[in-house]
Backbone:
């Protein structure tokens, strides 16, 4: 890994050069919050942003994606034969300015989309054609808890390049070959001065010290699944408050569930993959009408058990959460995953009690 | 309104002690400034967790739908009107409820506040007497007038005091009159737009919708066992982000709420992307006033106008 220096005065020109070989996506302010969007000609990502309102998972895994289509015109040769839409584009793209917590989320969801048995062609091609240029985080929010969730404000393990903001310039860690290629395409080749690595380490320590909230996860694997499942003391109050909307799941960078729908528009049929949410009753409603998760408590418990217990047990890869804090700040009824994780981690089945933390 | 809390706790403890109610529905302190959590207290210890201030802007009527228990419920003006709607529509019985009335001074707009703050808000404090709200976070501390950061529906509210209650936690507050505020000024602005501008306005309004249904699920009126957007046999609405489907959801939901919506603002408050859902519901509120002289939730004696037929119902709107 080498470190280069990118003067901010060279940033815009570099971004422009990248357009020749990359499709660009970056943070832009629309209305009153930031979103990741395709950068149009001349548009520069807003690198002063804190983070996007909804996680940028949709850069790889769109909320609605046409995966197949076919003609319903009997005269056509391919009548009722599904094929991939011609406008699918897996040419290389770059996501600029993604935060380390959000980049780390792709590693957590990869276990679902890329297994020995099944390879999700849509997610994988989108992911593999993308170069991630991360922006280290110096101003974490009060809801951030990445350092105790296996990530961190300077976590560079899933980035190709990580930028560290040094006021008039960026120090950029070139982490992978993809990163090397992008830096070259942008014309960013100035080696950083000696001591740059130390400067990054110092910024990293400063940023990490600003993260004030945390979750305890050390006991989650040891806890009995059934004990947690039956722990009314954990689930009763959040289940009452929960309104079963999909805000947490849609804002979350690591929620991966989807639904497949067929739609007919005129003489064309489309097979569409849409995000789905375990908070919705119909997510698990059987064709018979029976719903194994028929109550609100069942659904609230499912979301947290999946992220903090089933995932932990199945993949032995930590929790399915990077601590970005979006669900905490956006939940309309203030259900806080930090408090729930701490309750699950500290639950004592003998006394049926757990530690209740402020967040 | 923070001064109400002692009285709220006193009443709640008394009701539980006397066995008049099985639980009291209110809020407990949230982990995020501007957000408290809907909560039920079944014991005195749990009553001590209750809070009340200007961050209690959801609608608690949403939490008593189809309940079989006896419930003590905190109710502001709009919340009490939705309780009245629930009673009329058979979703709860009046005799199950002990309504603890809260003369409301308005709720803080969490979207507006976070947009005004230069960095994420770490804490919020309210000076009730001076009508000031102080927000602070990393590198900033700002004191604002509460009237500037109040939810828009609260600034236009004509029923701050509960319309039905069993006891009040404080003296009634002064009501605003229609001479002081025009609750439909914004609707009139939209009505005055050209068809093209109107289209563009609603297109833009819904462009951020992610179909999380927080607006619907926070709404006490949306209690259908299966919402039309969730029906699959037959399926009425597509589930992608196709603008036609997104619009269909919002338009139809608004119509289902016509004559029943109390403008409590829970839909707007809940929306994660800040859509002003009230641009729809407020128009229907205005229509119900003009066509039927009707305001929702002011009585438990009469069903809402779109739920009934009368020979002298106005017909202009179906011509």
Residues:
């Amino acid at each position: 890994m080498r470190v280069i220096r990118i003067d901010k005065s060279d940033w815009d020109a570099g971004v422009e050069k990248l357009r020749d070989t990359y499709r660009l996506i970056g943070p832009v302010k629309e209305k009153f919050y930031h979103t990741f969007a395709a950068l149009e000609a001349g548009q520069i990502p807003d690198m002063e942003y804190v983070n996007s309102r909804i996680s940028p998972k949709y850069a790889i895994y769109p909320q609605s994606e046409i995966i197949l289509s076919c003609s319903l015109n009997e005269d056509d040769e391919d009548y009722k034969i599904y094929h991939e839409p011609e406008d699918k584009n897996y040419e290389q793209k770059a996501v600029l300015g993604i935060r380390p917590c959000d980049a780390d989320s792709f590693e957590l969801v990869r276990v679902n989309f890329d297994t020995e048995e099944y390879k999700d062609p849509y997610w994988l091609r989108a992911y593999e054609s993308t170069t991630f240029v991360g922006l280290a985080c110096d101003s974490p929010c009060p809801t951030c808890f990445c350092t105790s969730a296996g990530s961190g404000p300077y976590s560079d393990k899933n980035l190709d390049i990580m930028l560290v903001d040094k006021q008039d310039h960026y120090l950029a860690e070139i982490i992978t070959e993809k990163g090397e290629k992008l830096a070259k395409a942008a014309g960013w080749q100035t080696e950083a001065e000696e001591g740059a690595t130390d400067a990054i380490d110092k910024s990293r320590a400063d940023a990490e010290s600003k993260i004030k909230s945390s979750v305890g996860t050390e006991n989650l694997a040891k806890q009995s699944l059934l004990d947690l499942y039956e722990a009314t003391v954990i689930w009763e109050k959040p289940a009452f408050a929960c309104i079963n909307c999909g805000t947490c799941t849609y804002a979350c960078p690591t929620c991966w569930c989807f639904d497949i729908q067929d739609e007919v528009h005129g003489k064309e049929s489309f097979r569409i993959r849409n995000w789905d949410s375990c908070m919705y009753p119909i997510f698990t409603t059987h064709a018979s009408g029976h719903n194994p998760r028929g109550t609100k408590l069942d659904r609230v418990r499912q979301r947290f058990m999946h992220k903090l217990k089933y995932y932990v047990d199945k993949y032995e890869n930590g929790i399915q959460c990077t601590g970005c804090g979006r669900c905490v700040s956006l939940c309309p009824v203030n259900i806080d995953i930090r408090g729930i994780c701490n309750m699950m981690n500290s639950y004592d089945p003998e006394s049926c009690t757990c530690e209740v933390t402020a967040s | 309104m923070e001064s109400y809390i002692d009285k709220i706790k006193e009443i709640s403890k008394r009701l539980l002690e006397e066995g008049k109610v099985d639980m009291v529905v209110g809020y407990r302190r949230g982990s995020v400034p501007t957000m408290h959590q809907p909560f039920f207290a079944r014991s005195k210890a749990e009553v001590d967790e209750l809070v009340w201030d200007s961050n209690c802007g959801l609608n608690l009527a949403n939490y008593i739908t189809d309940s079989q228990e006896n419930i003590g419920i905190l109710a502001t003006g709009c919340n009490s009107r939705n309780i009245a709607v629930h009673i009329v529509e058979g979703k709860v019985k009046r005799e199950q409820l002990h309504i603890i009335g809260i003369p409301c001074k308005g709720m803080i707009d969490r979207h507006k506040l976070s947009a005004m703050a230069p960095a994420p808000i770490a804490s919020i404090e309210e000076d009730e007497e001076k009508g000031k709200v102080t927000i602070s976070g990393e590198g900033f501390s700002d004191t604002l007038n509460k009237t500037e950061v109040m939810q828009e529906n609260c600034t236009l509210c004509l029923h701050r005091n509960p319309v039905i209650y069993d006891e009040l936690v404080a003296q009634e507050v002064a009501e605003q009159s229609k001479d002081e505020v025009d609750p439909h000024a914004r609707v009139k602005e939209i009505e005055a737009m050209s068809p093209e501008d109107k289209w563009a306005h609603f297109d833009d309004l819904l462009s951020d919708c992610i179909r999380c249904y927080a607006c619907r699920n926070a709404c006490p009126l949306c209690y259908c066992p299966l919402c039309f957007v969730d029906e699959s046999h037959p399926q009425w609405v597509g589930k992608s982000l196709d603008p036609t489907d997104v619009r269909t959801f919002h338009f139809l939901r608004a119509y289902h709420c016509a004559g029943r919506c109390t403008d409590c603002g829970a839909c707007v408050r809940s929306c994660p992307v800040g859509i002003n859902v009230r641009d729809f519901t407020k128009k229907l509120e205005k229509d119900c006033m003009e066509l039927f002289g009707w305001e929702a939730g002011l009585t438990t004696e009469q069903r809402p106008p779109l739920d009934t037929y009368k020979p002298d119902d106005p017909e202009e709107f179906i011509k």
Remarks:
- Residues 219 and 267 of chain B are 6 Å apart (CA to CA).
- The longest strand of chain B covers residues 23-32.
